[in-house]
Design brief:
145 residues; alpha/beta; Rossmann fold; globular
Length: 145
């Protein structure tokens, strides 16, 4: 099984949506991939309530993807997460490249960057829709590789 790692700032909203949506679609497609997600700056999520964003829960539920009652809380990325991943994707180039340079400089140019802003810059509807498009494109790419 190959591993994909999705990164965002707090591992609460965007990366968690990408992780769960990817795993759902990969399973339906028969892909031998599993996604996980981590935070680049977990300390910036101090005002987050619960294990995962209500935007993420709602959108996943709308797609028939129900989360476990014991959904894990956000987790900080560590070097081992990068080493065990076959592909790493940071959700927002402008936000996450500087964090990569600061915290994981040796990995900065070895990962893929998307451009999906956090909820204070882009509405959840637009951002989650963009993540869905990118995840679907990624699934298609992996199916044909």
């Amino acid at each position: 099984m190959k591993n994909i790692l999705f990164l965002c700032t707090g591992n609460y909203y965007r990366s968690r949506y990408a992780e769960h949506l990817f795993n759902h679609l990969a399973s339906k497609s028969g892909l031998d991939y599993k996604a996980d997600s981590r935070a680049l700056a977990l300390e910036r999520g101090i005002n987050n309530v619960g294990a995962i964003s209500h935007y993420t829960i709602k959108e996943l539920s709308n797609k028939g993807i129900n989360l476990k009652d014991d959904e894990r809380f956000p987790q900080q990325a560590i070097l081992e997460d990068f080493m065990k991943a076959d592909m790493v994707i940071a959700l927002d180039d402008t936000e996450h490249r500087p964090l990569m340079l600061e915290r994981f400089p040796e990995w900065t140019d070895k990962i893929e960057y998307w451009l999906i802003h956090d909820v204070h810059l882009t509405s959840a509807t637009i951002a989650l829709g963009e993540i869905e498009k990118k995840v679907v494109q990624l699934i298609e790419k992996l199916k044909h590789s």
